[in-house]
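Hi R.,

Here's the chain you asked about this morning:
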Amino acid sequence: MAEQAVSIIESNLRAMMKFFGRASGKGDITERDGLLLIDSGVNYSVFNIAMLTSEVRRRDELVRRLATAAKYFEQRQTRWSLWICEEMLDEGVRKKAPALFADERLRKLTEAPGMIAERLRPPSRPLPEVEYQRVSDAKTRSDFAHITSMNFDIPFVTCQSVYGEEKAWAHDYHGYIGYVKGTPVATTAVVVASNAIGIYSVSTLPQHRRKGYAERLMRDVIASYRKSHGLETTVLQATRAGMPMYTKMGYRAASHISVYMT
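And the predicted structure, written out as tokens:
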């Protein structure tokens, strides 16, 4: 069951990441040599991504894959990030991995535990009313970019170059904005893959936090997808700040995802 949970979380994340390769219309998505390589067309590390597509059992194999990723992004003249599910590394390789990443001038940015819930628990507190809209026009695209910029400390112009493009939302990554009395306060996004509803880009503007808006938005959007797709399992990657909320909702940590960047 543990291995299955890791596989669901990791493969759903890979499906989500393809959004960035399609968003600007200038990107690329390539799979080769045990890697998924995504260039967003925007020279910003976290939007240009390398991920493993199969397990790594030997040190030299990880070295080879890192070299492949470095060469790909060097040819495209862009900075990049490595998103790695640590459970895909053999235990011996995992111990040596930080030194190998340092050799490629990759520094650790963050850890994002992969979490899974086969079924959500009922809310532990009354939740506020939130109206939500799917990202579908210039205003909702701008609202999504603005909230993402504020919460993840990314320049707005960079977010706008990705999330502000109409073509970005034409595939299987669907964004949602939560509004309170017409004011945008929170976001979430969904990808359905690997028989799970993947939840991403959960954020709330600083002045509206700790009021339950993000949880209410998540629950309403998940309920809609549960009804339309017949799925109960949901997965996400948690920030440290978000862990308490997700745990109360019924999520449990099942994998360890580390992000390194040039």
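The chain is about 40% helix and 30% strand.

Let me know if you need anything else.
M.
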